[in-house]
Specification:
The protein is built from three helices and eight strands. The protein is an alpha+beta fold and 284 residues long.
Length: 284
């Protein structure tokens, strides 16, 4: 009889324990499901807000509060400039002007009346370029002209030459310029030192280890004058060293006027001098 009473009590205790365990398990499962649903709702809400934000419509991405990732900037060019500009950089020497060349010279006007024939010229100078269009040069030009044979025969000499030393201040204006070529005008004034020489061939004796005779020109008469001078001309350039280089080849023609004195009863002279030197060279 004791055994029968104890058996129902044990069965009741076992059933109660199983019921409590099932209750706790079902509660934990329900709480977990509720948390997962809330997270899903939160994630969905965040996504919708991000898609509806102004930055999304303007092409931005990600969360509206997120800062954009920094992007690398291109390295600056030409000092502190962000983009190349022409001229990007000029040194203090880019304004220094230089010219050098040579060519032939033709007499015109009074010089063609038996006083001079064709000769050659040399030209060199330096100055300052104020900008790409305007500059100024201080130039020295040497013109060596011959004297016609008929004039030499009348003077009773065998040879002669006329040397003109021109010292001029010439502004330069580049009125046309492209990537490969250009054109300019120039003109100014100064003074000229003109020297006329008459020579004869004379035989002389020279001795080193032994003596021998040579024939060489000897100046038998000379006269000179210093007068005012003026010039004007046009030139064309070719940018042979590149479109951005200051150096360029040129060819130009000028008219040079020298107010030399006319002959008088007490002094020799040939009157005003007119020359057209054509020069080829390089200029900066």
């Amino acid at each position: 009889m004791v055994a029968n009473r104890t058996s129902p009590l044990l069965r009741r205790a076992l059933v109660t324990s199983v019921a409590l365990a099932l209750g706790f398990s079902l509660s934990a499962v329900a709480q977990t499901a509720t948390t997962s649903d809330n997270s899903a709702d939160t994630y969905s809400t965040s996504n919708i807000e991000a898609l509806l934000s102004p930055s999304a419509f303007l092409g931005g991405g990600g969360s509206p509060s997120a800062s954009p990732a920094p992007r690398a900037l291109a390295s600056p060019q030409y000092g502190n400039q962000r983009a190349p500009q022409y001229p990007g950089y000029e040194s203090r020497f880019s304004h220094v002007a230089f010219v050098g060349g040579g060519g032939f010279s033709a007499p015109i006007g009074n010089d063609t009346h038996g006083f001079e024939t064709w000769g050659y010229n040399l030209d060199v100078g330096g100055g300052w370029n104020f900008n790409k269009k305007v500059g100024v040069l201080f130039e020295y030009q040497f013109d060596r002209m011959k004297i016609p044979g008929s004039t030499l025969a009348n003077a009773g000499v065998q040879g002669g030459n006329i040397n003109s030393h021109l010292f001029l201040i010439d502004p330069v204006y580049y009125f046309y310029s492209s990537r490969k070529s250009g054109a300019y005008i120039t003109g100014g004034g100064g003074f000229s030192r003109k020297v006329t020489n008459f020579t004869d061939l004379e035989q002389g004796e020279e001795c080193y280890y032994f003596c021998y005779y040579v024939t060489e020109p000897v100046t038998v008469a000379t006269f000179s004058s210093t007068q005012g001078a003026a010039d004007a001309g046009i030139g064309f350039i070719w940018k042979a060293f590149g479109p951005d280089s200051n150096g360029k080849l040129f060819i130009e023609a000028r008219y040079v006027f020298v107010d030399s004195p006319k002959p008088t009863t007490t002094s020799e002279g040939e009157g005003t001098e007119g020359l057209v030197p054509v020069t080829i060279g390089i200029r900066f």
